[in-house]
Amino acid sequence: MSLSPGLLLRDFRLVDETMDMPGSVWIEQGIIRDVFPQGALLPETRLPMHQTIQGGGTLVLMPALVDLHAHFRDPGYPEKETLESGSLAAVAGGYGTVVCMANTKPVIDTLAKARTLKKRADTLGLMDLYPVLALTQGMEGKVLSEIRCLKGPLHESEPWIPMLSEDGKDVVSDDLLYQAMQEARRLGVPLSCHCDAGGPEAEEAKAAGKPREFWSRIEENHATQRVLELAWQAQGHVHIAHVSTKESVDLIRKAKGRRQEKPGPLGFTLTAEATPHHLCLTHGTAHALGDTTWGRVNPPLRTEADRQALIQAVRDGTIDAIATDHAPHTERDKLQGAPGFTGLETSFALCQMELVQQDRLSLSRLSSLMSASPARILGFTDRGRIAPTFRGDLMVVDTEAVWQVNPSLFRSRGKNSPVPGLPCRGRVLMTIYQGRVVFESFLSPDSSSGKGK
Ligand SMILES: [Zn+2]
User: Fold this and answer.
1) What is the CA angle 376-141-155, rounded to 5?
2) Which residues are catalytic?
3) Confidence grade of residue 168 (pLDDT, cut at 50, 70, 90)
4) Is it the case that residue 277 has pLDDT exceeding 70?
5) DSSP element (H, E) containing 32
6) How far is residue 67's CA from residue 101's CA, in Å, rounded to a whole number?
7) What is the DSSP-derived secondary structure letter of residue 11?
8) What's the gap in Å between 69 CA and the centre of ligand 1?
9) What three-state secondary structure class fits 154?
10) All domains of the chain, ordered by start, with CATH?
11) Do 101 and 167 form a contact (C-beta atoms < 8 A)?
12) How far is the CA of 328 from the centre of ligand 1 (A)?
């Protein structure tokens, strides 16, 4: 892949987790070389051969987003998504790095299968895809996958496997999950936990015919408690995926406090993510879309009290990152109850509108949650910030652009958005990957830009 020789991004509002200031950025050979405050001498006088992108107005330059949790359905389900459509959707949403879950057909449970996927994604050259390895063979929850045979630490032997996960379902056996956690610790990578193995109380509630929103809460709370206890014993780094209940938030907050009080001998690390849909929507949206069809997602959309607890948790650092859980499905699958929402192309706009424009978070904090912090969780020290030596993975956002969510225009094959028709303010207009423009927004007939471009 050829790297851009030089790219000057000029006169933007620059926002990352440590900065919000006017300035310009100089990228060379795919790497940020310089960040200039407004008024500083720019390199154009030194280097004649380069491309310039002019900012101004309401345009903001931010680090490209890093997604800890997406489903690209490839291999196996091209009617839902492919590597190509998923990658195009990712860059249209401002993403430069995406971690893909292993519940494909076949399941990604060996290094060889993961390597094939990674190579195909690299050939596209649009963004960095990182496959996770499943914890058990075929995700059947019976026998550990190839993770038990790999040499650690993975950041030395296979740095392109930054996470392990059985996402899609929980490993029901405590013993097997504990073994997987020990392997993850040995390999030096986080293990992302799905947390829906419900236990007897949830099963009783199900058998008694209680509604899903009732028993699924018991499931998540019980499963989170179980994972936290096993993780404390196994030590290592455990990451809790798509936290959705206020009780789970409390459990995570307490477990993080326990770590500070009594640090584990081998390095207990706990991180957690929430999705844009759980942070921005409630069960009212699911009812309106159809609880068993278009509104169905795992875990379900919850109450306003849960949503407020999640917002507090992203504010105070109990939740470390925002991850999409992008889960594309066909119309037929959704009508038959397949859980999940497509999310890569709306995540930034939703979070910006609901969290930043409502004064719950600064744009800088949102950048941390969607770029720098997930990069740290994956152990990447080269992305998620606008600073010299970091990668030239950036996005241009117009915080005032007015548009409307129209799933038929998504790059993703999954049109199953939870917010079809939603009027939005704020949009990703451009994505830059290693110093090259890989996405530029075109304005569709039903959308218009407020200012800027
Ligand atoms: Zn998932």
Assistant:
1) 25
2) 325
3) confident
4) yes
5) strand 31-37
6) 11
7) E
8) 6
9) helix
10) 7-62+394-440 (2.30.40.10), 63-377 (3.20.20.140)
11) yes
12) 11
* Tokens 């050939």, located at residue: 123
Distance (Å) from CA 258 to ligand 1 centroid: 27
> Rounded CA gap, 109 and 143, in Å?
11
H helical segments located in 24-82: none
Sign of torsion, CA 89 93 95 101?
Answer: negative
What is the DSSP pairing of strand 95-100 with strand 191-193? unpaired
Q: How many alpha carbons lie under 13 Å from residue 78 in its C-beta half-sphere? A: 1
Question: Ligand 1 centre and the CA of 10: distance in Å?
Answer: 38
Binning pLDDT at 50, 70 and 90, where does residue 257 land? confident
* Cα–Cα distance measured from residue 107 to residue 88, given in angstroms and rounded to the nearest whole number: 23
- The one-letter code for the residue type at 431 is T
- Structure-block tokens of residue 281: 């929507």
Q: What integer pLDDT is reported at residue 263 of this predicted model?
A: 58
Which one-letter DSSP state was computed for residue 294? I
Distance 446 CA to ligand 1 centre (A): 31
For residues 326 and 343, what is the distance between their CA atoms, to the nearest angstrom?
Answer: 5
